[in-house]
Amino acid sequence: MSAALLSLTIPLATAMLLLLFRTRAGTVVIVANTASLVAAMLALDAVMTGAREQLSLGNWDAPLGIRFELGPLTAVLLVFTALIHLLVTIYAQASRHSKTRDTDFWPLSCLLHASLAALWLSRDLFNWYITLELLGLTAVAMIIISGPRSHLPALRYLLLSLAASLCYLLGVAFLYGRYGVLDIRMLAEVVVDDPGTRLAMLLLTLGLMLKAALWPLHQWLPAAHAAAPTAVSALLSALVVKGPLFILWMVWSTLAEPGFARQAGVLFAFAGIAALVSGGWAALRTPWLKVLVAYSTVAQLGYALLALGLLLYWQDPEMSIALWLFVLAHGLAKVSMFLGAGEMQATLGSRRVSALKGASQTMPLAMFAFAVAGGSLIGLPPSGGFIAKWVLLQPLLVEPSHWPWALGVLLGTLASAGYVFRVVTIAFNRADPSSPGHDPDTAAQWLAMLPALIVWAMALLSEPLILWFQEVGL
Amino acid sequence: MITTWTTLLPPAIVLSSLLPGLLIFSLREDQTRLRIGLNLFAVILKLGLVGLMLRGVGQGLEFRFALPFLPGGDLVLHGDATSLQFVSLSAVLWLATTVYAIGYLQDSPLQSRFFGYFSLCVSATVGLALAGNLVTFLLFYELLTLATFPLLVHRGTKKALKAGRIYLAHTLGGGALLLMGVALLHSLTGSPEFQAGGYVELLADAHQPSLMVAFALMIAGLGVKAALIPLHGWLPEAMVAPAPVSALLHAVAVVKAGAFGIIRVVYDVYGVDQVQALGLAMPLLAVAAATIIYGSLKALQQQELKKRLAYSTVSQVSYITLGVALVGPIAGVAALAHLVHQGLMKVTLFYCAGNFAETLGIHHIQEMNGVGRRMPLTMAAFTLGALGMIGIPPTAGFISKWYLGLGALEVGQDWILLILVVSGLLNAAYFLPLIYRGWFCGPPRQWPDERSLGSGLPGAGETHWMLLAPVLFTTVLALLAGLLAGSEVSPLAWSQLIINRQFGL
């Protein structure tokens, strides 16, 4: 447990430090992220050998104090968060185009890291509220680094995020008034299925879905993620939207009574398929490169939503594994995609998809990173996205009555193939290539490729992870 | 796992082209010698390794390599008799095509990218041939799609990109269907290794509809690459690719991957008995027969040489499916032998078409008049290939058709003979005019676009030697496959061995 806490406190302390001294911020943050990653790995190692660990902060037991819990999923997510932060900050430090040097990116990214780590560790509705607020505010602050053009989408994101927080807080207040506890496990013991509780659950869900940009409450995401600086876009898509998703999954899988969960599950699953199709369609239509990548996030969250819905509908805990594999694979792939896209648009001097003509010649590495990451989003073997889709498909296919859901997955696959290869095909156009405004930055392109390579390697490393999750539960 | 050379040989065969391919990507355009050296080194290394495996399998050694991948489905590379048939074909044709491509692409841009993807494409093909279970097969099947796309759009023209989009729409859709089929079957039994006679027998009672749907999904997914109608639309478009790519695409890599997958699914996943019992053989047979006739009819209408050859592939590859779908031992032998025979003949024809286009600028059929006097060796090779396709004895094509006919009679599907005869006549109708024009019509005063690639004299100097040598090499191989069909080293004899195991003869 102490290692997990270290993984949280190192970025927090670094953020505080950077508020005071801003010399060599990039190097300091990279070192801090590395340390946090090592700590998270130690925590994961401890969980793998032992059982779940609990920690009551300041020795105050729940319901008075704050309880942290370190389970298998939390440990994996801590490693994942630290790894993504490390990859992105190295890129932000090394790339000529990242536009984050000498900005508030460095302390803010550490703060983001710390709030996510706290979110994964918390098991308390109000504590989650605090981490959500921190997450949302930090995210907005990071978007506006890129200048006045981003103010409008950032403001919209801020307002919606606040509204969502209020919704969530209202739900928490309902539950607290009704049961007098906020710790999720204590709540699960006393919760009953009545209209008040259902209303509270709906309020929580509304807030969380808005924050996680789950269909149909995703409208703010493409503009906000596309307007941010490249490194920030990567963090937002890979990590920030996954926080509320975690709470949503936790709340529904522990608090909802089976009958209610089944009803909601169908709705979630349909929303997931709608997200896959409509997000994919929007990504196929948009003329802007980063908006395309952002819409792909909307679509990919559809897989997670579908898995969550079917988890509730069938009360099948195996679906959780599919859900979190999607989150891991999507996070890594999306980092690569945003970094590759950012490098290309900065070098080629245009934010349009059509400016990528000939990019397979002029910027082969960045384009390759984009394509390889896209392969994982489509779910081509051997990639992390393929493994996740495979685990999701197995229960869908075993019973003929479940086959219509598999059709949704098929549609999602085809839609993602459509938007990924739309970009790739343009890149092979040699008729009239756009010439780079200045020399492509080779090192930065390699850094963009790295997460994509990791997500493909994930295919070969996932089997132990799946078996472990199946054995001990999440 | 104990690692010995027998476990490491299958991945070594895949890596022998994969690693050089990755190295080639990193080369600068002007490092021509290093690139050629790497290419040839990889080709020869792979041939040597495949030869080693052939000898080992002859001695009864088992080559198997496994990595954990999915619960219930490891990543397995396994060298059995069926895979060796395909691996040897790929390795030999890769040698010829590499030499051809080096000659063909001289002085053209982006060679490192081309040869990099070229090597990846062969690695994927070989991996697919060695795949020991469905999950592994699926993995390499998708990788093959990804590796061939850049080759197809290599020229980067509007037309090439359009063909590329059509190709992707077909193959990615097919890949998704195959994935669904494989995942469906996996959800019932996991993915055990391929075995003669299949592994679904125990499920047949409880899960009959699921098995049928899985079969239909897999065949549809594989049928895209094998160009079964109505999924063949990408293949005629794909002929905009450079000639070596077309040759590889039509002879080994893509269409054969589909046909080989159908062989695997019918023989080693379902087993002939179950395919028969589930009533799946007849629809497959009907589709294959329809494709044979349709492809030939369309070929007859084409005025562009490469397009005519492309439709001829649609027709000829379906002989393999036809042989498999007849679910009899003799037809099975024909199918497996035709996998090799068609590859050798078609690769020759595409090389010849490439030579005509590169040397004299001939793209259309009416431009072929008198080409036999200017390029007698290439035209002779073309003639032999075309006669093989028609099925004139003693060519390899005749052997395939003879056995197919016998196989059809053996299982009582006499109407297949009619299909074979009609298709043979149609083949003659679209190939004989070319042969006639080439030899017996007078040459034009000026060729459409003549380039000085060789000495310009008919014979050994009629074109660049790197374009001519592969043609002669594959022609001789195709001839030998027909003439020596009765010997022990022929593709036919090897197919007989595979089929004897399958049917327990």
TrEMBL record, chain A:
Compartment(s): Cell membrane; Membrane
A Gene Ontology cellular-component term: plasma membrane
Residues annotated as transmembrane: 70-92, 104-122, 128-145, 157-179, 199-218, 230-252, 264-284, 291-315, 321-341, 362-383, 403-425, 446-469
Membrane topology: Multi-pass membrane protein
Keyword Membrane appears in the UniProt entry: yes
Matching InterPro entries: CPA3_Na-H_Antiporter_D, ND/Mrp_TM
Main subcellular localisation: membrane
Domain of life: Bacteria
Keywords for the protein's UniProt record, in alphabetical order: Cell membrane, Membrane, Transmembrane, Transmembrane helix
Pfam families tied to this protein: Proton_antipo_M
Domain NADH:quinone oxidoreductase/Mrp antiporter transmembrane, first and last residues per copy: 122-409
Keyword field contains Transmembrane: yes
PANTHER family, per the entry: NA(+)_H(+) ANTIPORTER SUBUNIT D1 (PTHR42703:SF1), NADH DEHYDROGENASE (PTHR42703)
Family classification: Belongs to the CPA3 antiporters (TC 2.A.63) subunit D family.
Protein name, UniProt field: NADH-quinone oxidoreductase subunit J
Biological source species: Kineobactrum sediminis
Classification of source organism: Bacteria, Pseudomonadati, Pseudomonadota, Gammaproteobacteria, Cellvibrionales
TrEMBL record, chain B:
Cellular-component GO terms for this entry: plasma membrane
Listed Pfam families: Proton_antipo_M
Domain NADH:quinone oxidoreductase/Mrp antiporter transmembrane: 131-425
Membrane topology: Multi-pass membrane protein
Membrane-spanning intervals of the chain: 6-25, 37-61, 81-102, 114-131, 137-154, 166-189, 209-235, 247-267, 279-297, 317-341, 377-403, 415-436, 465-485
The keyword Transmembrane helix is annotated on this UniProt entry: yes
Alphabetically ordered keywords of this record: Cell membrane, Membrane, Transmembrane, Transmembrane helix
Protein location: Cell membrane; Membrane
Domain of life: Bacteria
Family per record: Belongs to the CPA3 antiporters (TC 2.A.63) subunit D family.
Name recorded for this polypeptide: Proton-conducting membrane transporter
Organism, as annotated: Kineobactrum sediminis
